[in-house]
Amino acid sequence: MKTDCTKKSGAAESSLDISADEFCAMSRRNFLVMGAAATAGVYLAGSEAVARQSGRTDKSPGNTVANSLSLLKDVDIYFPGDERYGSFLEGLFSREAGQKKPSAIVCPKKHEDIMRFVEIAVHDKLKFTVCGGGLSSLSVQTDMICLALNVFYNKVEVLDRDGCTIVKACGGAKVGDIVAILKNHGRHIPVGVSPMPGLGLVMRGGIGHLSRSEGLTCDHISQVNFVTACGDNFLLDANCARQYLWNAVRGAAPRFGIVSEVYLDTVPGTKVTVSRLTADTGMLNGWMENADKLQDSVSASFVLGSDSVKHMNPVFYGYLVHQGSNENALAELSSAQKNMTGDAKLSWLEEAHVVDYAQMPPFDVPLRDSGELGGEMIPVVKSYLVKNRVVKRMGEVLLNAIRTAPNQFCRIDFQHMGGEVRRIKNGSVFSGRDADWNVVVTGFYYAHSLPDEVEKTTAWVKNIMHRINAAIVGVYSVEIKKDTPETKHELEMAFRNKLSLLHRLAAKYDPYNLLSHYPL
């Protein structure tokens, strides 16, 4: 094994598994839209140009996937027709991924299983995907092997390193697991707005309620145990020899290899202060105008969406969070809420109060009614980073968009950035640090929809981003899809002058294009 530093070993059993069924209990609609905001929470793989010797002499292209994978020992493998194969696909959060037909599903239990799998994949030129959180439509592809880290390889362990508390997460862990376990140690890390994503979101950003005060999730990564797509194993950190790769995995890991383990620095505290409200959509303009005046310890994210599952009834849903949980934090958040809302009439207000960071309320418009969804729904998502000084003059564009949405499940999220995100300079390829908001536009269509209905939803999402183009300073790479008319432009916006480097790294660390389904 090649390492740049001393490799730490050991893994602890995690008693946590935030299943889709458990999360769904929060409400069927909430389950739907929270996952959509992180649909691409996946960390796939890709990397180096020297194949390892496997000890086999038969290199015939006629080798079947089953024959190739028979060399994996003590690893569960599901093939088409196996009951576990179907159960795995049905259990994925992303229904797009669940409808694919992988050639096999490989479920590693330890790091060495991943190493051996990649060795076989390189030898036989087997294309594969990696499934971590299972939110991404890219986590499973038809006729490719799915490396399912989320089945067994999902442990989380809290460690003491030189007097500092860090957390080690294996490749299949979810951010909800990490935050919940850290709570028992009086610590946390800033994460996105949903507990469901895996390390894909961690590695490529992690924009959430504490980003303004503590930075992105990826800013807390201290080390990555990384397996390239050609089988090399590197322990990457700020002091390693391969700084170019260390910088690249923090922002674009899925294209170069498999994140086997990630180590993150933690932050003291387990509680935050929250205030939520709903109001008429007329709240929008004043909210964005006042957002620039907030202190960095406060975030003011919001959603334009419907508070009814029966018909479109647009409302404004504001979600204020203070990093602290003492009396000063309560007073400061109460004052911030009053300044943000002014004299506007509120439909509903949840006054500032302290909550566990591991159990924050969902970032979803509270519903005033209930009902069935009417069938399985598929999301269309775009996530762009924008400047407030420009987008705050486009309020009418956003309001018209939500009023004319294809259905009542469509939504426009503004996740608050700025503050610490803007100040951090750590070499990662994450771009758009000068943005004030991550704008996530999510349209939905039914799985049984006719083509024109699908096109209507897709056009609605794209049109919004086109209309606010002047405000856009970056693209959040977790939502970039391959082979769309806008893919090339989105990659350029996501990585800017680092894109050519990433292309070179992809060629170097994935010369056989085993991970070429990923858009880079």
Automatic annotation (TrEMBL):
<dbReference type="InterPro" id="IPR006094">
    <property type="entry name" value="Oxid_FAD_bind_N"/>
</dbReference>
<feature type="domain" description="FAD-binding PCMH-type">
    <location>
        <begin position="98"/>
        <end position="269"/>
    </location>
</feature>
<dbReference type="GO" id="GO:0071949">
    <property type="term" value="F:FAD binding"/>
</dbReference>
<dbReference type="GO" id="GO:0016491">
    <property type="term" value="F:oxidoreductase activity"/>
</dbReference>
<comment type="similarity">
    <text>Belongs to the oxygen-dependent FAD-linked oxidoreductase family.</text>
</comment>
<dbReference type="InterPro" id="IPR050416">
    <property type="entry name" value="FAD-linked_Oxidoreductase"/>
</dbReference>
<dbReference type="InterPro" id="IPR036318">
    <property type="entry name" value="FAD-bd_PCMH-like_sf"/>
</dbReference>
<protein>
    <submittedName>
        <fullName>FAD-binding protein</fullName>
    </submittedName>
</protein>
<dbReference type="InterPro" id="IPR016167">
    <property type="entry name" value="FAD-bd_PCMH_sub1"/>
</dbReference>
<dbReference type="InterPro" id="IPR016166">
    <property type="entry name" value="FAD-bd_PCMH"/>
</dbReference>
<dbReference type="InterPro" id="IPR016169">
    <property type="entry name" value="FAD-bd_PCMH_sub2"/>
</dbReference>
<dbReference type="InterPro" id="IPR006311">
    <property type="entry name" value="TAT_signal"/>
</dbReference>
<keyword id="KW-0285">Flavoprotein</keyword>
<dbReference type="Pfam" id="PF01565">
    <property type="entry name" value="FAD_binding_4"/>
</dbReference>
<keyword id="KW-0274">FAD</keyword>
<keyword id="KW-0560">Oxidoreductase</keyword>
